[in-house]
From TrEMBL, chain A:
InterPro entries: 2-oxoacid/accept_OxRdtase_asu (IPR022367), PFOR_II (IPR033412), Pyruvate:ferred/Flavod_OxRd (IPR050722), Pyrv/ketoisovalerate_OxRed_cat (IPR019752), Pyrv_Fd/Flavodoxin_OxRdtase_N (IPR002880), Pyrv_flavodox_OxRed_cen (IPR002869), THDP-binding (IPR029061), Transketo_C/PFOR_II (IPR009014). GO terms for molecular function: oxidoreductase activity, acting on the aldehyde or oxo group of donors. It comes from Candidatus Propionivibrio dominans. This is 2-oxoacid:acceptor oxidoreductase subunit alpha. GO terms for biological process: response to oxidative stress. Gene3D superfamilies: 3.40.50.920, 3.40.50.970, Pyruvate-ferredoxin oxidoreductase, PFOR, domain III. SUPFAM superfamilies: Pyruvate-ferredoxin oxidoreductase, PFOR, domain III, Thiamin diphosphate-binding fold (THDP-binding), TK C-terminal domain-like. Residues 248-416 form the Pyruvate flavodoxin/ferredoxin oxidoreductase pyrimidine binding domain. Keywords: Oxidoreductase. PANTHER family: 2-OXOGLUTARATE OXIDOREDUCTASE SUBUNIT KORA (PTHR32154:SF20), PYRUVATE-FLAVODOXIN OXIDOREDUCTASE-RELATED (PTHR32154). Pfam families: PFOR_II, POR, POR_N.
From TrEMBL, chain B:
Gene3D superfamilies: 3.40.50.970. GO terms for molecular function: oxidoreductase activity, acting on the aldehyde or oxo group of donors, iron-sulfur protein as acceptor; thiamine pyrophosphate binding. Keywords: Oxidoreductase. GO terms for biological process: cellular respiration; small molecule metabolic process. Residues 62-209 form the Thiamine pyrophosphate enzyme TPP-binding domain. It comes from Candidatus Propionivibrio dominans. Residues 256-292 form the Pyruvate ferredoxin oxidoreductase beta subunit C-terminal domain. This is 2-oxoglutarate oxidoreductase. The lineage of its organism: Bacteria, Pseudomonadati, Pseudomonadota, Betaproteobacteria, Rhodocyclales. It holds the Pfam family PFO_beta_C.
Amino acid sequence: MNAPETASKAGNKTITTLKEHIIEIISDSGEGAQRCGQSLGSIAARMGNGIWTTEIIPAEIRPPARSVAGASGNRIRIGSGYVTNGGDQTDLVVAFNEQVLLGRVRARELKPGCIIFLESLWRKHPDLNVSMAYIEAHDRLLAAGHRVIEFPMEQECQLLNADPKRGKNMFALGMLCYLYSFELQMARDQIALTFGKKAQSTIDANVKLLEAGHQWGEANLDFSFCIPATPAARPQIVTNGNTALALGVMASGMELCSMYPITPATSASHYLSEVFEQVGGIVHQAEDEIAACAFAIGASYASKCTVTITSGPGYSLKQEAIGLAVMAEIPLVVVNVQRGGPSTGQPTKVEQGDLMCAIFGSHGDAPKVVMAAATIEDCFYSIITARKIAEAFNMVVVVLTDASLSSSQQPFNRPQFNESWLAPPFDQSPVPEGARAYDWDATSGLARRFVPGQPGGMHTVTGLAHDRDSHVAYDPDINQESLRARSLKLAALQKTLTAPEVFGDEFGDGSGDLLVVGWGSTKGGIEEAVESLRAEGKKVSSIHLRFLQPMQPGIKEIMQRFKKVMTIETNWSDSPDEEIIDESNRRYSSLATLLRSRCLIDVDCWSEVRGQPIKPSTIRRIVLAKLTGKESAPLSS
Amino acid sequence: MNCSATDCLLELYDEQHELEDYQSGVPRWCTDCGDNAILAAVQRLCRDEGLRPEKTVFVSGIGCSSRFPHYMKTYGFHGIHGRALPIAEGVKMVRPDLTVFVNTGDGDCCSIGAAHWIHAIRYNMNLTVFLHDNQIYGLTKKQASPTSPIGTKSNTTPRGSYLDALNPLSVTLGVANASFVAQAVDWIPESLFEIVKAAYHHKGLSFVRILQRCPEWLPKSLDPWMQDPDRIQLLHHENALHLSAGLAKTYRNQLLHDPLDMNRAREIASSEDVIPVGILYQNRDIPRYEETRQTGVLRTTETVRKGFEAELDKYTV
């Protein structure tokens, strides 16, 4: 897909024009590859390119140096147009040592013929084991058909009297700016922004390294690339999903975030801790996940709708408290930045494993709203919507994002502040005479809520079954009535939703051979695959669900217009190829299970839990197989 | 908190509240249960202090004592087991204008909610916490609690409990930022009320352990102390509680104790023969978390807009 469009020669140098390229910068932890990658992404975005950056993170803070599992860095997909996901294999790598690179090779992340810039200092390393390992890896990579360029980063940085351990990343950034024909001034501006809090001397030193890297590229490389940009019409911001989430909290009118540290959710709270107080907000780090949730519930109860941000294990711990908020009808926003599970699982890796737990978690019938952000922009708006729903319906709203969205960066339209985001949606007029704590509406189950400070509204909320006065219910009819009311609120919300839009429906008939259904961070990958298959004439479309509970109306009708329906998800499903798996015991992916039970349609699924975002090429392969009926998973009848 | 002129005027017109204004329903506790005595003392406090029912919140966990908010005609939050403190902290954090009480039992506070107890002391938010300590699980029908004396026969320890009891006073006094620690017993209403009152007036987390009888499951456990007034040690000090003539006559075991003396407080807390009653420790100078965390920013739409736009500027390309 990214074959060179044109190649031109200037002197003895070739400039190749590309539609897109995927670049990785990897190092040992602490050598700055992440910063280099993020900066490169931001510079490309400034140039008007579409980007998607993905963090490569080891599980430990300081894994052993030069270890295969210790790769730390960033992967940047740069495109001419809008980029919706991390894409397929890598076109070009800058590696600070050969061991971290081998990790990526073994993970099959490099494209055949990948261009590799490899730090050359190890060739002459005094430790023979190190130099031998380097030479062996170097030769093997060459033999495998990769184009290996030995890159003397440390040596060049030493010429500048810089600490090469700290400066190499900016030198690499300079070289990459040359390689991709980025304006050097944009890179200088980016450095000034990145190091904005540091002393001017730090900024100057980094700019010097950047320029040196650029010069090295100019003097030593006989090729370079150009990825023409098509700048967006509106101003763009570039953030990762957790920053977008935190900005969403800031703009949502909520004043308190109550949390406990957990990966990969915490960086949202880090950022919020930095900025929230400027607008009168507070981040409370509680003593544990349960307390974080209970604290949020207390604050919400007392009239200030609050958010608690967590990841899988923390979400599990909060279940009893979430059930309390459901029972007492206290608005609450809970964000679950999903990671691999169960238990500690894969804390830094992506998975969509918490959907069932989000919907069905908590004992008893505990209806709550479950939304899923599908893009980085969604991470921002979901929080604003979540708080509105929480307060309008006095419900718990769970927002699911994941480790991929949380740490990936992408440009999106700069949000335009809207005063109504801050408005308190609940009724603060005087409490009418004879008002009851839960005067459930017969049709919608909704009841007006009274909060402390309102004269005449006094009552004790309770997690016990209770009547309309919030008195402990001893009458079996009351339990039946109150569960009904809390359940109907979901239906009342569902009545306000519209059907999902069909992607790949140019003729507006919304029909075809295969419908792919997704939710969450797989959106970009699914749509890219669908688009490319449609370009080849395949009748495949997709829908992406942002509400998982309640589900939007019209989903069944859309599915019925397609010959086959399947979900693609990043959670577990049994493969029908397994010797002992058949229709009577196959466990489907979460969304497929939900759709099958709700719509009585034979929805198939494909999923993997490799801790990586599913690549568009993988989705293409799966979808093609399903379309042609050659898939390994036979369609059940 | 500053009062506006309107608030002051409204104050003038405020009705005098009667005890009934704070009473809700008929308590469903057992006859002779110590919870009744605590309820009476707290309702009296509300009346005497003229607490506005709509500005008062009782937060509780789960257990016999945690039914407390249901019997108050104020706002109340009957939560889940062990989590009364973090819920109350959330309330206080965003609504410092409210008077917040916490009712928690020995299982609720010292067992399932122990983590929150330790940290609540450290936050030192302006909450009045009553530990209703009857040394047994009541609502789940007689299981040993962390404060059950060793050897307590219960449904989970039919041959007697195995471990020494946890001392809630010593634990509380061992945590950073403890600012008010007192002990009362349910059978001396006068001192119970005085201690509850002092706790209410303390600015910070006031922790009051109230030893109370459980007539159903441990009817005789406190008899040795009830029947021998000399085994009650009344603490008094000019900076703490004063003893009335009546009280001083009945309870002759009295101890002059400066509530700022932490070391002595810890010694008193660990008494075994006598039950110390009064204020063990009080330090008015410890910062309160809800005040420490005040941002000093007047939150208006304009402030939020400005702050938000400034952040967006940082990410705009």
